[in-house]
Design brief:
Order of helices and strands: HHHHHHH
Radius of gyration: 21 Å
Strand content: under 5%
Shape: extended
Number of helices: 7
Low-confidence stretches: none
Largest sheet: none
Length: 145
């Protein structure tokens, strides 16, 4: 079998993805998560919290809700239908931290959860930390005294 025959075989055997349908579902799920965040923001603004505290409360609530839904196996079902729509940064990150922890819980708290919790999110945290340090150094060097 040559290269062209192999490509043809692969294209015939690969299931066709309904791209438009997937995009609409991702848009609706991602939009729903963002709308939930806006509802939380509106509710927290009705309290005595200041603007910075409202932002923290919304972020914290979204992280906690996502962690609970991930632990209950619900977030995975939402992600199955919503695809990239569930990758809204804060909920996607919370899911990326909680999922490996749940998966490796059987191996124990130290060698399972503790060692694997940052398998997916660890590189993101390291990259963000290093990038912010580099940016800070560049800013410090370029700023006038």
């Amino acid at each position: 079998m040559d290269k062209n025959q192999y490509k043809q075989l692969v294209s015939e055997q690969t299931p066709k993805s309904p791209i438009l349908k997937d995009c609409i579902k991702a848009f609706l799920v991602g939009g729903g998560i963002c709308c939930f965040g806006e509802i939380l923001k509106t509710l927290y603004e009705m309290t005595t919290l200041n603007e910075d505290e409202v932002k923290l409360a919304v972020s914290g609530t979204l992280i906690i809700v996502t962690a609970i839904l991930t632990g209950a196996g619900v977030f995975d079902k939402i992600a199955k239908h919503g695809g990239a729509g569930t990758a809204v940064p804060i909920t996607g990150f919370a899911n990326a931290v909680v999922s490996p922890a749940i998966e490796f819980k059987a191996e124990g708290w130290i060698l399972g959860v503790g060692a694997k919790i940052f398998t997916i999110a660890g590189p993101v945290i390291v990259y963000g930390t290093v990038a912010s340090m580099v940016y800070g150094i560049i800013y410090w060097i370029s700023s006038p005294l």
